[in-house]
Queue: 3 jobs
Job 1
Amino acid sequence: MIKEDIIITNRLGIHARPASLLAQEAGKFKSDIFLIKEGIEINAKSIMGIMMLAAEKGAKLTLSLSGVDEDEAYKALKQVFKKIAEEDIYS
């Protein structure tokens, strides 16, 4: 199992477009992948679940992965979060 806290730095937070990108990437893997915010745990393969978290700029999310390809999934999702944060691509 892998767990890591992630702080959302995109100025618009995680809204529809980045949520879609995260869900699509998570859906490529067999592992169970969850995002947790303030005790609410959602399946990261669900765009609606990600949107429900309403992760605004500065929000702390916990990324939790467990399964046969968790290492590969972790690396891929970290790249997605990095892209969202660094480029502020969906503003």
Job 2
Amino acid sequence: MTPDKIVLAYSGGLDTSVILKWLAEEYQCPIIAYAADVGQQEDWEAIRKKGMATGAEKVIISDLKEEFVRDYIFPAFRANAIYEGSYLLGTSLARPIIGKEQVRIAMEEGANSVSHGATGKGNDQVRFELAYLALNPKLQIIAPWRIWDLNSRKKLVAFAKEYNIPIPTTKKNPYSSDENLLHISFEGGILEDPWNEPEEDMFKLSVSPENAPDKPTYFEMDFDAGNPVSIDGERMEPVELFTRLNKLGGDNGIGRLDMVENRFVGMKSRGVYETPGGTILREAHRDLETITLDREVLRIRDSLVPEYSRLIYNGFWFSPEFEMLQKTMDECQKTVNGTVRMKLYKGNCIAVGRKSDNSLYSEAHATFEEDEVYNQADAAGFIRLNSLRLQIQAMNRQPEGRG
């Protein structure tokens, strides 16, 4: 299929600016530059002007912040999503909403092709393209990094100079980073050697734990059906609430992560992340669940978290298996209502109090003092029945002829 109009996921950086011009030259058709606002700090008017100057027929900037928090971040945190025990999926969660909006724009603008700036080595190519294919498989996908010969920064810069594409003259940033309301990630540069410690001036959303205040910060967060709804009694919309959490976390050195993860394509990759608000939200949510979820519901739900998180990481947000898991996760959130009191101190995020009208915690049963609701003698039979199989195994191991 010959492209007649292409919608490009555009950031205004070197890579996608070169891709914009390259697509126009290669396919000789109109290019729509689409930028998604998912909470990153950008000069959107400058991006619009640069896109038009680089050859776009139209530049569309979509404000997706509210939808991103409400329909992507909150559902994932209702499920306590976490990849390989550490990563809170900041980039992974942003890709499906960006891809969904790109498909919508392509259909609205009558474009038959979509393009992105992800490389052939990473996860993002998979996440974008799985979204395209799940939502409109008729669209042609153009991934320049897999087909062109501009395979180095030197070649990209040379191409940009040839076509008078502005190259940022700010302080050199050796890192590849991705920012949204949930997090900012850093890869590349000195981080490619997993032995190197990240430089302090790299971080953007948080102070170092060493430089955080010497006095702890306390606050309370209210939940309704697993979603945060207010801080210190002040009810807020999702973006406002999450922005507040990011500020609280960043000011107290919360949410830094340095890990080597397994990419879907097969290689290991070292990434450094800042997720201040998400770190607080997950800790508070999990703590509230300890008093509001039945033990067996919690056990089964937790067994599903690794698979749920793997699906997000690998790009299967729009798959039937993910839809099934999300419904399962949400079903057990009906009773996750209440308040958690949090303590933030020099990188530590600690739940120090929790209460709920749906609480299953019974002080009368749990007390170490005298009570009238629990017969401790019942425990003897409970233990003997639970040890029956162990007793039988022990008897079978005894040598013949010995009692």
Job 3
Amino acid sequence: MTFPAHTRAVLVLGLPLIGGHIANFAISLSDTVMLGWYGVEALAAVTLASSYFFVLFMFGSGFAWAVMPMVATYAAEQDEISLRRATRMGLWLSLIFAGLSMPLFIWSAAILDLMGQTPEVASQAGQYLRIAGWGIFPALLVLVIKSYLAALARTQVVLWMTVVGVVVNVLLNHALIFGNWGAPEMGVAGAAIASIGTHMAMLAGVAIYAVIRLPEHQIFVRLWRPDGEMFMRVFRLGLPIGLTSLSEVTLFSASAVMMGWLGTVALAAHGVAITLASAAFMVHLGLSNAATVRAANAAGRSDWPHLVRGAVSVAALSLAAGMATTLVFVIFPEPLIALFLEPGEPARDQIVATGVWLLAMAALFQLVDGAQVIALGLLRGVQDTRRPMVIAALSYWAVGIPCSYYLGFVAGLDGVGVWLGLVVGLACAAVLLVRRFWRMTQVAAPPHHRAA
């Protein structure tokens, strides 16, 4: 295939995945916007709670992400039995992880208090997490089934099921946060209940689709039956992916905790800015998923020139998206931030002023953040997950978090310094992961294919 053909193929596969990620992100975005209308303290609390939930969710998501390259490879090899087994064991491992994580949700208020958050914010965040934490069960199961469908190029349904989830979440939030349509006014607790309802609706949708449209795979038939060999295969591939995701998300969650030390206004501004940056990141994440599927298919066929040309195409698309987002963040910061705040909010001017500087930092890390996630997607496609896990841990924990603390509190740059530390950690990961992928393709490909 030529480079334009690769680009078209990536877009056909990737655009629905990008849309699905943006729609999935819109679920948390609707929580942020609607709670911002409810009050700044509620916004600060759920910003912190969402970071906490996301840490555990991303750790557990490793088993779902492992299903994607495995199913794509088995599909290329026409091995439907292994395809079914991998999906089932992904469901098993996700359920086990969700059960093990529940104590951390139940006692979240005390944990956040120990992390130095203000008592009011810790209490409200804990109230949200004690309820919303139960949503990790359906959320992880949805991700496994979405990975299975995406690996089979069923990306349109991934998009539309997630769009339905957005609509359900907005309607439930409208009713339960503010007490509309005869529902009680529940504030933060209402947002948590709405989150669970949304995940359950999406789980029902993707499960019904899989049963009706792909009956030959029978992924839910005899789901109770253990499969030790495939369980360990998914576990060995998925645990490093989960730890890699944990490394990155803890970098951002640590930044939320540090911003909490700077006060409610700084944390609220961080919540708005990180929401906007995360929305832009969904484009790179969707392209990364497309890269995983296409790399896994190419690896399953041992087609190394195809894999390398596809990698160059997806990297070019990510670079173009990053440059466009950077321009938007630099040119229109104030209107973007204002979308999240009530016109009469007393702290509005302070939040906007802080958020403008944070978006400038977000513009800096768009390109490196895209590069590192594209490299991770390609490496997962060739089922290389252990070395990337080490690279991520060193980049985010040994470089990013210490830099954020030093620049924010020792150098006295406050929130801007905290975010500048994020840029340093992401840049370190991007360089090392791209280098790893290039070396992997040179080692794995036969000598006569390496110049392709």
